[in-house]
Amino acid sequence: MAAFAADPRLRIGLTGGIGSGKSRVAAEFRRHGVPVLDADDAARAITAAGSPALAQLVERCGATLLADGQLDRRALRERIFAEPRLRAEVEAVLHPSISAKLAADAARAPGPYLVFAVPLLVEQDLAREFHRVLVVDCPEALQVARIVARDGVTADSARRIIAAQAPRAVRRAAADDLIENEGAPEALEAAVERVHRDYLALSALPPFPPAGRGGQNSRP
What we know:
Layout: E1 10-16, H1 22-31, E2 36-38, H2 39-46, H3 52-61, E3 66-67, E4 70-71, H4 73-82, H5 84-108, E5 113-117, E6 132-137, H6 140-151, H7 155-163, H8 168-173, E7 177-180, H9 185-203
Parallel strand pairs: 1-5, 1-6, 2-5, 6-7
Antiparallel strand pairs: 3-4
Helix pairs in contact: 2-5, 3-5, 4-5, 6-7
């Protein structure tokens, strides 16, 4: 994702395990007027019906990934979980285009700092792309409950999805900033407001902390 590294602004990498509440945190940043560049949104854009990236995925993985001409994301996710070696092939197809899309969107986005929502930031060793890494976390039991309620899957399926991601301890160790999302919505809002104030202060005082040191930068 180095394509956006030339942007002179402070770059925050937002991540967390599935069901941790990344989307809610991203929404809170947007409420504060902060641009949030979402890797999942970029992936959806570049794999739209008729896109070159979708054609490449179908060529590598088969037409079973399609539903009415659109990418069946759940089918792709299930294939990746069932065939771990397939993940690298899918990433090789998607990542360059996702990076370019994020870079283009970032160049058009106003604001003193940028938040990049990257679900697999730790798994893909992308901390090096950001000045700070913000991790959203919660206990696994709460992740499972949220996934079951949101996606209508079984608890066992939810646990398998969680197990395919980086362990909580590894993700937390990569954090420069950590938001614990296991309480009331008001607590999450207050936590985002706190780090937002920190990032505003930091963005006004370049040079920024060295990028690529996830979990090692001191607080602003």
